[in-house]
Amino acid sequence: MEVKDANAALLSNFEVFQLLTDLKQQRKESGKNKQSSGQQNLNTIVYETLKYISKTPCRYQSPETVRDFLVAMKGHKLTKAEKLQLLNHRPVTAVEIQLMVEESEERLTEEQIESLLQTVTSILPGDPEEQQRDSAMATEDKGDQA
Fold this sequence. Notes:
By secondary structure, the protein is mainly alpha-helical. It contains 8 helices and no strands. Helix 3 (63-73) packs antiparallel against helix 7 (110-123). The protein is elongated, with a radius of gyration of 19 Å.
């Protein structure tokens, strides 16, 4: 096999998750039981990748969500790689943004970082259980302060 253009496109975790899930489903439907050692290695890679990726925020994304996110990001002056990192990791704090956006201190004001965080958290879905836990903890904290 020959790689014609190594940088033809960047794939998000969601796209990889969809691709591997579809591949796994096709294999189940075809019902081939006899596998070569190369096929077993591929199955291991698919399994391990799906196991890892299913623990990331991409698990809750959809094609529409990704499209909406990219449209919303046009207003922010970020590189493709930075947008991809935001999409894959769904940051919820300013520190996470600073880790993902190169030279963010020089390129972004605090207001822009807050706007970016607001965009990310409002468009990209997070783990529903984690969000419920966070909101419950925030409610308890407010009750403790009163």
